[in-house]
Amino acid sequence: MRKKIDHIGIAVRDLENSISIYKNVLGGTLIDRYRSDAIGVESEIAIMDVNGDRIELLSPTNNTTSPIARFIKQKGKGVHHIAYQVENLDEAIIELEEQGIRILADSLRTNKHGRRLIYLNPADTEGTIIEYCDYPNKGL
């Protein structure tokens, strides 16, 4: 199945400062900013466009339960995940299972932009957090 990079997720402590860096240093544009209190997300998210590439700046909103807070405590701020857009998420999940790659089933969700997503188990990806996503109403 064809895949392409959709976005890179960056864990940050100071969302305002990070937005400023992406705007003023990298020439990016703030596309959207929102807060998600959903279990397993619990973050404020700023979506930046830098010359056609998407970056998600992720700042934890709950330092006890947010996976972003946990990531920062364990690894520090920086690249959190790489998201790959696939043609069909359901078919991609079957393909992963056939390849022996586990998914984190509880991470399956649709975000406010209509993007369906799921995370692969980092234990099967050499520690890299990989997201697969699709846009059912758009296409690859």
Sum this structure up briefly.
This protein is of the alpha+beta class. Helix content is 21%, strand content 43%.
Q: Major sheet, described briefly?
A: 8 strands, mixed
CATH topology: 2,3-Dihydroxybiphenyl 1,2-Dioxygenase, domain 1
Order of helix and strand elements from N to C terminus: EHEEEHEHEEE
* Average pLDDT reading: 94
What's the count of strands? 8
Radius of gyration: 15 Å
Structural class comes to alpha+beta
Neighbour order of strands in the largest sheet: 2-3-4-1-5-8-7-6
CATH class: Alpha Beta
CA distance, first residue to last residue? 11 Å
- Give the helix level as a range of percent: 10-25%
> Shape, please?
globular
What's the CATH H-level superfamily name?
A: 2,3-Dihydroxybiphenyl 1,2-Dioxygenase, domain 1
Report the β-strand fraction as a percent range. Answer: 35-45%
User: What is the CATH-assigned architecture?
Assistant: Roll
Q: Which regions are unreliable across 5 or more consecutive residues at pLDDT < 50?
A: none
